[in-house]
Amino acid sequence: MTVEYYQLDAKIVLSTLGAKPTGLSSTEVKARLQKFGPNRLEKKKRITPLQIFINQFKSFLIWILIAAVALSVAIGFITKDPEDFLDAAVIFAIVIINAFLGFFQEYKAEKAMEALQKLAAPKAKVIRDGKKLLINSEELVPGDIILLETGDRVPADARIFDLFNLHIDEAALTGESIPSKKIAEKITKDVSVPDRKNLVYSGTIVTQGKCSAVVFATGMNTEFGKIAALVQAEEEEETPLQHKLAAVGRTLGVGMIVISIIVFVLGALRGQEVLHMILTAVSLAVAAVPEGLPAVVTITLAIGLTAMARANAVVRKLPAVETLGSTTVICSDKTGTLTKNEMTVREVFIGDKIINVTGSGYDPTGEFKPQKPLNVSDKKYLEFLLRSAVLCNNAELNKDTKWNIFGDPTEGALVVLAEKGGHNQKKLQNEFKRIHEVEFTSERKMMSTVHKDKTGNIFVFSKGAPENLLGRCSFAYDNGKVKRLTPQIKKAMLEETRAMAGRALRVLGFAYKEMRAGAKMSEKEIESELIFIGLAGMIDPPREEVFDAIKLCKSAGIRSIMITGDHKITAAAIAKELNLVGGEIKVLDGEELDKISDKELEETVRSVSVYARVSPIHKVRILEALKKDGEIVAMTGDGVNDAPALKKANIGVAMGITGTDVAKEASDVVLEDDNFATIVKAVEQGRAIYDNIRKFVLYLLSSNVGEIITIFIATLIGLPLPLIAVQILWVNLLTDGLPAVALGVDPAALDIMRRKPRDPNEKVINKQMWLNVALIGATLGIGTLMIFYRTLPEGVETARSVAFATLVMFQMFNVYNTRSERQSIFSAQTLRNRYLHLSVLVSILLLFAVIYYQPLQKAFETVAIDFAHWAYIILVSLSVVVVFETKKLLKL
């Protein structure tokens, strides 16, 4: 019989699943993972290695080539000519080798992409062995205790046993647009999925509140697992660049087939053997069409994305890779991104006195040092402030090998402050039981919790931005007494806030009140008639690496904009310390943003570098104004309400540590370390990936055009074919293989972050590249034809051997040429890619084997060539360097 967990009491559910509030043990988790498997939906079957190999033969041209090989074998049986069998065998062998090379490239790319998807796997907060942990959601098992809060994506189906004001958006599962309000009590009657209010379902979103729940179903056993076919139907995402290159490949394919037909017809009309011309024409088409392009693009993307992941930037959406290289503005949150996110309270203001607080980080060792002696009343209200700091708080202070925080770092700093003042978090939480909470939101900029002490008294504790909190207060503790909050007292409090902000401190205000029993637990009732207690100023030092990252942005033509919830003066002080802009720092706050129109904002965004006291709605306005001004914007965010801005941004960047699941889902990139410098590294890597794709596109196209010109012109003017079918295919194998892949992993150019951002509308194969393709292709084709014509008197086999070697050497020099369309081949950049040097060396050794190894000589119809021939070959093939270097020098 199926257990319906929603119909059971929470304690019975825990017992049935062998769970307890302190969580499973590590040993039990391992056993359950073996039994139930990982918590993931089964995806549509991935392409197998055999399928990847078979796919290498799907090309129409390959099948024509194989058909021609079969025809050659058939003719060989009729004529008894061993040459027919040998030609067929060699061509077939090259086709197979080429297939293995293509298989290796695609298989490697597939595996790399799978590894990247694992890096982007969602996380889950659990309790195990009595400790709160953040794990990959795939590691969840039935019986695990999960912790959910606003913005989290539910990682598995679970039964709630403890909750607070919990609302879940279940639209993805039930289609119901209004979030479902949850309960912890059992439901006695049979109800459908949407009405099982004490359950949370995998894939749904927490829109409000928090809860603890015990997992009862994972993976395919979840409600989402039962409709997994919908997920399996999703197609893999391709980037716009891949679409464009595929279109270029198709266009070239059609062109090459036309040229190959012309070559075949002209050769046949001149009396060449028909089968020989079929093989040559098809081989030319196979060699000329850059079929390796998609695989090399995928490998380049995979390698680049892996490098980004190692640098803590996990790319969730492939098109982001292209956009990163075009980024002109980075709008970054301050806390934790530009700063260390290691908040430490340095000052407390109570009554009319400043108290300095010693210590740093999350170690609760420190002292309170008042600048003036505290009276009895000051001490009493300092106690209220510390209670508010620790009770109106969802963070937790822990110690393993060192002190650390589970939760928000700002809240963590307040727990540490209270501990320094002698207020133990767990002891206070037991003394004052939380009975209600009004959550912090970016719009309200404050939070309140309601508590009942052991005698039944009810207290409200609040914290938030001083100006917002003061708006909810009717009284204030000032100069030793609680007084009615007058405009003068409010002004004094705000002046003190500004003074602390001017010392680069982030300032929070605290308030409390005693609430009458039976009062309505509404936001309005809870957050009214509050008594303002005082202020706490904390510092979050800038990250050391951010200074260089901002400097690098300036050299790369990228504007850095800071967006923060801090006070305007604090924001300006931090921006000045970071040297965010060269001259005067212009700051705009939320109130000022509200007063200007969208049209005025479009003008203003050009000069503003810091936005303070902003809400998520302001973020969207700033973003839209920047985009209308033609900027390509990377925008950071971590909260639920940041999702609209992250979606609208050209590059949405979510925080991996502090970010909610909703923010991560809306983003293109997730920062595993929440670090601004990591965004800059990702931009640099995005530029490098795009550069490398351009490099091998230029290399493949120019080399292939060189081959086409060689054969086509020779056919037009009536010369013997400079290369036969097997030689054409071998050149293609050498050049489209290892060197092209090695270009895909080329290190970033030394000047890559000294260039202006790339125009996003620029075509990957622009006019300049077509010019380069034509110039290099013409140099290769004409040079090979000249040396072939010059050597013809020595015999066709010798001339073909020399032409074959020349074309290969041309392409070996060309691979170094195409590493940069700007920098000289003789720059320091040339020596930085050991894979390229190795691939060129292997290609040259294989060339020597074909020219000098007797069994291969017979197969490829080559003869040994002497030193004088090599002198001509090197001299002629070097011309491609001279031509392209001259173009670079003249900046044509």
From TrEMBL:
Gene3D superfamilies: Calcium-transporting ATPase, cytoplasmic domain N, Calcium-transporting ATPase, cytoplasmic transduction domain A, Calcium-transporting ATPase, transmembrane domain, HAD superfamily/HAD-like
MF terms in GO: ATP binding; ATP hydrolysis activity; metal ion binding; P-type calcium transporter activity
Membrane spanning residue stretches: 60-79, 85-104, 251-269, 275-308, 696-718, 724-749, 770-792, 798-816, 836-855, 867-884
CC per GO annotation: plasma membrane
Membrane topology qualifier: Multi-pass membrane protein
BP-aspect Gene Ontology terms: export from cell; proton transmembrane transport
Domain Cation-transporting P-type ATPase N-terminal, first and last residues per copy: 4-77
Reactions the enzyme catalyzes: Ca(2+)(in) + ATP + H2O = Ca(2+)(out) + ADP + phosphate + H(+)
Subcellular localization, as worded in the UniProt entry: Cell membrane
PROSITE patterns in the cross-refs: ATPASE_E1_E2
Xref: Pfam families: Cation_ATPase, Cation_ATPase_C, Cation_ATPase_N, E1-E2_ATPase, Hydrolase_3
Keywords: ATP-binding, Cell membrane, Magnesium, Membrane, Metal-binding, Nucleotide-binding, Translocase, Transmembrane, Transmembrane helix
Cited NCBIfam families: ATPase-IIA1_Ca, ATPase_P-type
The name this protein goes by in its record: Calcium-translocating P-type ATPase, SERCA-type
